[in-house]
Amino acid sequence: MPPAASSIFNFLSRNETCSIERHEIASATFGALRRNMGAIIGRLSTSEDLEAAEVANSLRVLLFTWLTSPVSFDASILDAVQSFGVPDAFEARWGLRGEYKAALRAAQEMISGGNPVREELLAVVLKLRADGRTFRIFCHRKARGHFDSLFIPPTDACLDDSSFLHSVRDYNNTDPFNTLIKVGPLRSKGWGAAPDAVISAPRFETLIQLVWSGCGDEPGFGYDPVGPPPTPGNAVALHHHDTLPNQICWTKHVTHTGSDPGVIQYYMPEQDEFVAFPEPNQPGLRRSATLLEILAGDGILYPRKSDVLSFDPNAGAIEPVDFRVPGETLVEGMFVVQPQIREIAFGEMQAAEGGYCRIWKQRLREELQASPDAFCLILHNKGLNLQSLRLCVENWAEPPHAVIHAPQKRRHFQILIDALALDSAITEPVGRDNRPWWQRAWDEIRITRGEAIQTGIQEHELIEQQALELMKSLLPEIRTRATGVEGFRLQIPPGSDLRGAFVFFKVLRIEEGFLAPETEMKVVRDLNTLEQWKVT
Amino acid sequence: MDISEIQGEWQPIPPWVRFLINLGYEWPRSGPRPRRIALISMPCDSAAAGLITLGAMVHDLADPQTNDVDGHYDKLLQYARQFLESCNPCDMKCDPQMKQCGYTKQATGTLRSPLLPHRTFQVSTRTNFEERKLAWSYRNGMIEWPTSKYAVNWHIEDEPPPEWNQADGELSPDPYQRLFDGAIIFPENMRRSYSGLCFAGRAGGESVSRELCASTRFGNSAMEYGLDELLTIHGWSKTNLSRIAFFNPRTEKLDRSNAASNLVIADGDASFLKVYDRPEFSSSDIIGVINRNVERDRLEAVGMKMLPNQWLAVDTDMLCGLPSVPKGISIAILKGRTT
Lengths: 536, 339
Fold this sequence. Notes:
The structure holds 2 protein chains of 2 kinds. Chain A has helices at residues 5-14, 28-45, 50-68, 75-82, 87-94, 99-113, 116-130, 144-148, 168-172, 197-200, 261-266, 273-276, 348-353, 356-370, 372-381, 389-396, 410-420, 437-449, 457-473, 475-482, 527-530, and strands spanning 17-25, 135-138, 164-165, 179-183, 206-212, 243-244, 249-257, 286-293, 298-303, 308-311, 321-324, 335-344, 487-491, 498-506, 509-517, 524-526. By secondary structure, chain A is an alpha/beta fold. In chain A, the strands form 3 sheets. Chain A has a 6-stranded parallel sheet with strand order 3-2-4-5-1-7. In chain A, strands 11-10-12-14-13 form a 5-stranded antiparallel sheet, with helices on one face.
């Protein structure tokens, strides 16, 4: 729950100015690694080869992780760089001129030196503790382990949960405190993102920022839609004649430690990695998403407010298997289900039986003869809001040839049949098949279309609906398998229309605040990769 | 008067609360004036929108013209016309937005009266719109043709009555006068509803909005009121009267028919964006209140609406005329280039 607003206003009125202590840290070896990694990313990014783009993206993830987290400079860095391939082959493949080998050398040298950011961070935290100052660390959840690893009990007290802020919501719910610690530049989206409110609505007196030299804050960070962002370094906030600004004033103090001989020669503001290698895709091509963290440091993004096939292991659940909205009805502890369907078998009876189309098309023609406009209005009011609806309906009334002319979407077809109000004597169940008449008619259409299953929204919708019904029948087995595990695969038994398996992932955490392209939705990805789509 | 937030300790009304209530109270509402759009950016989550609405409501209590009694007969006629000509013959599931019938909510043709609280009355087909004669079935097939004065005792079902003439149930001026020392309150307004002021709640819906307002309480040693009760939104308090219309951004519905709001206060960025684009508020003043501790894309979406354009210019005069703004609150105001 957020704190009382008065406590925030009291805090703001008590503090004339807030301050930023920016510690810019340089390292010759890490600088060499950054420059060479940057050169490789730059080289691969210009290639039209899809694999090159993938490698560049993986390198970018690594580099940005190192720049925004207090990682240990140990063998894991060297392993990560080496994982891209044998030096000679890698360089020959991508036309490099020693950059990869130089990066490997730098990574090797870094192991003996230690990470100066970690050392600085440790000193900062110990001093804050000694001074009795309350502090919070803003970082991505996945980065927390790097902070925790700084403090080894019993020598040092561990950092507790309350020491960390990971999201806008966390920040919104925290009471005022003394110091905020941030590793990396201030950015509103992507790796190491933080809320603009850190600057526009501070709940702390001092921001201690530990940042590698050459990494600048995002211009305009601290955005307030009412007025310009405060300008660190000015004792008095800028006054903008078009608005009444929030009067929050900042002072800024920058210290430099370490040295990087290469920095003067190589680093220009525009060569800041966060500027030079921005996240791919334009914002206009992305959509809001919710992250579901699953096992082994992986996660899945789902479009915000989407219905997700899921299983609630709670014994008291009324509908254990259902479609749920992440963060609302789908919560931590439940399982998200991904159907992995190879094919769908259609019932022989429906395929052989055929003839459904003759019935509904005849009825449709009658409607069109009687009052086409009125019938189109009924369809529209029922939710079939296609453009040029009249033309579509006339097309659907055409006699079948190689295919049956009908609505493209299953839902639209259901509306059409509903609007036709067919005689109940005609639509009665046949034999053991007690599905609604429109579903049998729809299967007839799909068979004639001969569309490949598992591609396109239409089939996906069908699979999920069938999967839901099938999973309900498998509930006892699902319950047994779900006990005490964070994920499992359930093979679909023979005899079903669906062939394949259901993969269950326990939801460990749900996080809002992502903006990702459609291609990144509903696929299992490493959390580090997904962090690039974070907007706070 | 003291205040308590989120079940916290009682304290004197702090400057930020006083500022917001005064902002609503002082907001220009009468006479020819340009349309205004304002955005209040708050440093945290708060009941700020409710407080501004409260101020505006107290301002309205002083104005004899702020009531739903005037024009009530016309409203019932409009309602009857909608029911008889559109809703009654329509056999579709009601969705005015999809049907684009021009209405915002279904008319069931049912009326109620505080005089006969256990009965309902149905608008009659014998209503004559040309002669402006409303009719409803009264009892045993009898038809009643009320005068405009008599019709004030009838109101649309699920909406507040325009006037409350019963012994109990009228509003108490006490909390409003305590909030504003010397506030003038027109006594008749304490038993009359009003729809010219609108509160657009949180994107999460009515219950979320009400809960948030209920967490802010005013009181002293003798009495205690939740902000939700003081706002008199229909169904939020014991009183049958309502001096504030409620727009639910989740369902995109107003709580009453034909409400012509001259000021809408929107709670949150999503609510502000919804209200900004709604045709029924196209000529209303809008005050949006946001907590700026949200994601950047949401901030930018709101910011885009506050850029001056060919219709709206920065209202420097009003900005300069505001009393001292508490630290942490930022304000932008645009006004129409024509009145």
